[in-house]
Amino acid sequence: xxxxxxxxxxxxxxxxxxxxxxxxxxxxxxxxxxxxxxxxxxxxxxxxxxxxxxxxxxxxxxxxxxxxxxxxxxxxxxxxxxxxxxxxxxxxxxxxxxxxxxxxxxxxxxxxxxxxxxxxxxxxxxxxxxxxxxxxxxxxxxxxxxxxxxxxxxxxxxxxxxxxxxxxxxxxxxxxxxxxxxxxxxxxxxxxxxxxxxxxx
Length: 201
Known about the structure:
Elements: E1 11-13, H1 18-28, E2 35-37, H2 53-68, E3 72-81, H3 102-112, E4 119-130, E5 136-147, E6 163-165, H4 177-182, H5 185-193
Parallel strand pairs: 1-2, 1-3
Antiparallel strand pairs: 3-4, 4-5, 5-6
């Protein structure tokens, strides 16, 4: 078997974020892959020392692949606010603090902006697939939108309740998971990654 081949049931999701596990598992499910998360395997979370979304996705995927001996896919994503020079960007999760309280993170964004008028922002998702031998394949997806305050809806996770995708009226926190996942930044990155994947049948 080629070292680049994927086997059903043999792919690690290199994340401890339950929301990302659900989204990635649902994206991969129709393609015959049963997945397991890094959290379920008890793998440590590596320090995100990269300066870009792709760099952080690659280091997380590589850490999980080497620790498990299996191919691993990692996501690094975040909210980029144009008026804040792209912040919080790669620090999106860190803005939520040790408790990962994203209401705190959303208030930090609000406090840094005048949200009485429309504020443009975009979500970025980098996906990286890594093998234990160090080979990686990485892509990046993006969706543009505006911020709203106060946050609307309780669906989704992270900054979803304050983000309204261009062309939509409801926030990511108000739409169903299926509607969001049909064309969000993670779905767009996944569509770019699919042609780069080797066969797993």
